[in-house]
Each structure stands twice: as structure tokens, then as C-alpha cells.
Specification:
The protein is mainly alpha-helical. The protein folds into 3 domains: 207 residues; 45 residues, no CATH class; 79 residues, Arc Repressor Mutant, subunit A (Orthogonal Bundle), CATH 1.10.10. Helices cover 64% and strands 3% of the residues. It is built from 21 helices and 3 strands. A 3-stranded antiparallel sheet has the order 1-3-2. The chain is elongated and about 95 Å long. Belongs to the CSN12 family.
Amino acid sequence: MNHFGFKNNPLNNLLHDIKSLIFQQDGNELATILSLEKFSLTNDLRNTLVNNQNLENSVAKILDSPWDDVVMNHFLSLQVLISGRNYALAFGHQCSMIQALVKVLTQSKEENWMLPAVYMASIELRKLAICADTTASANTNKKSAQPDANIEEAASHLMNLFRVCANDSRTSIEVSKRKGMMNIINQLFKIYFKINKLNLYKPLVRALENANIDEHFTLAERVTYSYFTGMKSLYDSDYRKADRLLSFAFEKCLPKMEKNRRIILIFLIPVKMLYSGCLPTKTILQQYNLLQFEDLCASIKEGNLYEFDQAIEKNSEFFYYYGIYFTLEKLKVLVYRNIFKKVAKIVQNHQIPLNHFVDAINYYQSNRNRIELADDDKMTMEEVHCLLANLIADNKLKGYISLQHQKLVISKQNPFPKLSPDV
């Protein structure tokens, strides 16, 4: 099939190619032709699109409904992008294209070959929405515009696609549109995380779990899905689930996709530390250019509270950007635990006076007595009671506090157990 070198009417030739692909049910090739980014326009076709003032008739003469609306709105998006990069107008046409694809999915019974074209249109809808919102926010004449108006509208259109796919439950899975559920959910996740509307996350997950067709999704879709659900579990403080999901995403992500693997690691590293106490090696931090975690890991290992606070503050911009700053703050409990381990090792007795812990914490809080601590910054006995009680309650320390003797009585066997039974 020749998509290039059109001599007489390049637009008509392209439309006949599209009609042929629809007849052949070639969803992958159709997705490429109907892509704003991936399909390379010849100069002749570009000029024809820009100068054609009657696209609707041109398309309707060759394609049947509702495919004619799909293609016409795609061409209209191309027109405005070629002419002047009017993202808001292009986004409007892309929305109409998605609406036409909803009709295609609804009218197509027991077939799902068009899903690749749906995926491509969905991705480009989201990207156009972001461009349109960015342009609107930069326009000082539109101060009253909602900052995420277009991306929220995009989510609404994607939900319509998702419903059509999810409702195709009576069709055999091989030809069911339910195969498109995870791909569209991933696009919605990208939007919900961007606009911070994670309350819309649960119904999608529930619908996918009820479908129970995980083995029919591609590995790439499952990796992306695991990444987003792993992040959500991290934000919900469900570190065991987050560890499982993010570990799957990292292990199954292709090695050549270094950028994606790096982003997964940014969330997996804190999860591993919180859930199992596992610190990343310097080698992996260097390999993925994540040295922002190096000083943090060193301070945890050493049990140095001052260096821990300095490491957090030094890279606070990076940690804030990825939304893990407050998650990393929770790692301070591991610093306290390692200080207590050091004290227990020095004392070599299962009954340890609590004032030893107070002195040790203040020693490391003052960077080994290198700085003077204000009275308000010094650890008190009551605060040590709370720290030890929390460690014992979380099974990070085996023992009990004797208030009468102001001592910590630790187990003679494995007083500092592994943080996770899975490790």
C-alpha cells in the first residue's frame, strides 16, 4: 500500500487507503494513518489539507458513517495544527473524533480490531488537552479560565470510551472490546494523577478487577497499570502492596526503557526502605542517576539524625517534585531504630537504661556533638518512650518498657527482627 507520492488527488488516495484498511480490519496500520504525530505527511497532502475548504464532502463521498466523522475530525485537527498550532481548536476536533469512535465501538459487534486506533486517538487527546491548557494559562487575557478545563474534558470523553469497552461483557474475550479497558484506564490514571483527582481511581480499579481478564492485556499495559496502582498504594501507605506492584513494573519494564525504569525506581526506593528496610546500592543509584538518595541512605545506615535532615533538605526540590518528600520523612523511624540497635550492641545487655537512648539520639541529632542543640531541640525521656512504644507496636523492636526501672527490656533472641516477613 502506497501512502506517499500521491499524484492527482493525494487526499482521495489517502481516503481510499483508509477505507481499505477498515475493510481489512487492520487496526495497527489505521492507527498510524490516523495519528497526528506518527503519520508523515507529504508536501502535496499537507497543501491539500490546508487549502481544502470542503473536507466533509470529500470524506463522506468515500467513507461510510461513523468512520467518516472519525476521519473528518482527524483531518480538521491536522488542518488547524498545520495552519497555526491552535491547540484549543485541535483539541475540540479531537474530542469530536473520540465521540465518533464511541459510535464505531458501539455499532461494531463481536470485533475489537479497531482498538489500536482508539488507543492512538486517546493518547493524542490527552496530549492536546495538556497543550491547550498550557496555552490558555499562558494567555493573560484569559485569567478566568479553569487551569485544567481541557484535561478534565478529555477525561470525560475517555470515560465514555471506557464504558463501551467495559460493557462488552457478553462477547468472547478474543474479540471483546474489554481488551481495551486497561489501556484506557492507564490514560485516565495519567490525567487523574496530573490533576490530583485520585478519588476517581477506585471505580476503575474495581471494574478491571471484576472483569478478571488480566492475562489478556499486553505486558506493556500491565507494567504501566502496576506503576500507577503502585504509586497510589504508596500514597495510601500500603507499602506491601506498593512493593509488589512497583517491583513488578520495574522488573518487567524493558532494560532499554531507562527513563521509565528510573521513574519507577524513584517510587520503589522509598517503598523498599519503608517496607523491608532494604537500601539501594550505590551502583544502582549511579546507573539510574538517582544520587539524590545516596546521602539519605548513608544517614539511615549510620543512624545519623543530623545528616538525615540535611539529606532531605539538600534534595527537597527533587523530592517535592515527585511527591515523595513526606514519604521520605517517615524513614526517620529507621534512623531511630538503627541508633537503638547501636546502643543495644554497645551495652550488650537485654536490660538497657532509657537515658542511654536519650543521650545517643541527642549525640546524633547534634552531628556527633559538632553543633550546639537548643533545649527545645533536645530529645526528652517522654519522647523516647513514644519512639520505643511505636517501634514495639510496629514489630520493629521486640521487647517492653519497664517504667518502674526506666529501662528497655529487649528480647534475648532477635530483638530487631526483619522489617518485612517477605524479605
